[in-house]
Write a structure and sequence with these properties.
With about 450 residues, this protein is an alpha/beta fold. It has 13 helices and 15 strands. The strands form two sheets. It has a nine-stranded mixed sheet. A six-stranded parallel sheet has the order 3-2-1-4-5-6, with helices on both faces. Strand 1 (about 40-45), helix 2 and strand 2 (about 65-70) form a beta-alpha-beta unit. The radius of gyration is 22 Å and the shape is globular. The model is unreliable at about 1-35 (pLDDT under 50).
Length: about 450
Amino acid sequence: MTDNNRREFIKKTSATSAALTIAAAATRSVHAAEDNTIRVGLVGCGGRGTGAAKQSLSVNNGPVKMVALADVFENKLKSTHASLTTDSKLKDKVDIPEERQFVGFDAYKKVMDALEPGDIVILATPAAFRWVHYTYAIERGLNVFMEKPVTIDAPTSARFLEINKDALAKNLKVGVGLMCRHCKARQELHDRIKNGEIGDITMMRAYRMTGPTATAAVEPNTGDLSELQFQIKNFHGFLWLSGGAVSDFLIHNIDESCWMKDAWPVKAIACGGRHYRDGCVDQNFDTYSIEYTFEDGAKLFVDGRTVPGCKREFASFAHGTKGSAIISTASHTPAKSRMFNTQVMDDKNEIWAYPQPEPNPYQVEWDDLIAAIREDKQYNEVERGVMASAVTSMGRMAAHTGQEITLDEFMKHDHEFAPNVADLTLDSEAPLKANEDGKYSIPMPGLVKKREYL
């Protein structure tokens, strides 16, 4: 899908959405409580969900209260509850009695049913469930904060754009956890690049080369959990749940780089492989190298690695015809964005640096969402979230198949990783089944070319 084609698609759908939004404007997306309190429910009590919950309660813009939790694992729910209720700065904003603590695959509905239209639900489960949960949130008239990635395959990407039309029609406010877009340092860098201060971007580089990360490397199931629960607990290791290490870890670097270019790449080629983990059963490669090409021929090179004992790099860079820039320095925050008048990025060539300290973008994204709700501003980050997710998945697919993949080809692809995800229960079989050795299908570049795994 070229930028022109995508813009035409968005133009057509936006015309309809805009008309519906105008019609819905009279029905203001207000917070329900008469005392002006915005109530928040959390679906998915992992580390990022708990972090988002705390950030929602830390917004200094009117009263906010956390009132309901949901997860498929009770121990995770209890851990989040304890973390919230023992935080001295936030505990007075937490009101989650036993009757509003829900466990199970239908727990997301119970959390949303405990909220009122205009309240906020945080969707922080593995991405496979995102479109299902978002559909119900829209039905309930809830504002939404959802974690990235938004989607992990082509069919759900197209579906998500359709689902989002209803959110636009209802004037719901929707934030997506690509918090780098809310970073003040990166925002100023973006404006300076747009003003031509380093010339035209011809190349970008992005790296997330670390040691073992989260649950990307998965040891065999000991039998304590069902196959489905085992995979959900180790969701970074399974493509149907999270898109694996590429989608969950590399998306931020890819998104911030595409933002600086103000374009989405039109194609990708990639390499990758597994190295020292013969005993692991996950579907990830240990290394990924992706070359993205933009419509004007500019390149974005992305390197990901989760191998212990190797040099670490977690940063993004832009190279222009008049100079260069550091988009992010080490991890996500602080960005310490800087610009240089040559391709040599050292102090003597520095022409601009964002002053320190800089606001934490994880908090700023919540400040922005709450402000949009309070002030009833149009606010919906879903299209950008879907495109960032799809572009990331395109690069992953190129590595897993060994083929060049265009964005147009990716968006038309028919491999939906978990087509029955909406019907799963705690007693369901997993969408991905282990073989007789307890291992799962892994990508085989050059052998399996039409899809990422069998």
